[in-house]
Recover the amino acids of this structure.
């Protein structure tokens, strides 16, 4: 039963990731933590998401905003070692609580911005500059190496900038691909990866790629408003799910 649940989670999470540019880590890490009861969940998600992201990144390579990806990666470089330190010193429960708190804070901030924009004649956007992208990139890099979740904080920020849905999606996928690559190298070099972790990862790849292609198909039907609602729903649901299962 647990294997079947892992496959279902992998398919659903990959569909969400392909359709919106993020979500695999949020859904899979929280679910894998529950099913496997081990920090191996993070390494499994890093491996299978990297494989999926490489394929996905190649498919959208023509629309990747390289200027934005470079800005975010500058911050990620600072965050990667911070995340590895957190992964080493923190236990599973602490990591889960940290994820839940961060996600719910992002939900609250997202709701606040929505409320404020409704009471203004013109919607206000967050700026895209070195300060903001540096901070967001650092948090994203730390979450990538500690929790296999580089996407949520980037989506939370970029969805409040003056950017189109596909630009946000491409920027997050491209940045996450680099983050997963670095995270896997760090995990292998510092902690090592068990044979069973590789076996689980290989077992979940077919369901993951099935979800990837299905998510790519439905992405064309997601308009900007629906995209914003999906982002908020996934963040809120994932944060609440982690808290309930503590």
């Amino acid at each position: 039963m647990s294997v079947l649940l892992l496959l279902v989670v992998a398919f659903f999470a990959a569909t969400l990731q392909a359709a919106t540019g993020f979500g695999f880590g949020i859904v899979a890490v929280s679910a894998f933590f529950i099913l496997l009861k081990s920090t191996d969940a993070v390494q499994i998600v890093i491996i299978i998401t990297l494989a999926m992201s490489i394929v996905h990144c190649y498919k959208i390579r023509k629309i990747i905003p390289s200027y934005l990806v470079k800005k975010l990666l500058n911050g990620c470089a600072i965050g990667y070692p911070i995340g590895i330190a957190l992964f080493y010193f923190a236990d599973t429960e602490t990591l889960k609580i940290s994820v839940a708190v961060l996600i719910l804070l992002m939900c609250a901030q997202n709701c606040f911005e929505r409320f404020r924009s409704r009471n203004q004649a013109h919607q206000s956007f967050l700026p895209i500059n070195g300060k903001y992208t540096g901070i967001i990139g650092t948090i994203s890099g730390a979450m990538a190496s500690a929790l296999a979740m580089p996407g949520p904080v980037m989506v939370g920020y970029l969805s409040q900038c003056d950017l189109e849905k596909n630009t946000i999606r491409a920027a997050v996928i491209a940045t996450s691909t680099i983050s997963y690559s670095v995270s896997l190298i760090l995990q292998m070099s510092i902690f090592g990866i068990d044979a069973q972790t590789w076996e689980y990862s290989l077992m979940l790849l077919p369901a993951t790629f099935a979800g990837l292609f299905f998510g790519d198909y439905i992405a064309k039907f997601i308009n900007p408003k629906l995209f914003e609602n999906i982002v908020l729903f996934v963040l809120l649901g994932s944060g609440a799910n982690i808290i309930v299962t503590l």
In short: The two ends are 21 Å apart (CA to CA).
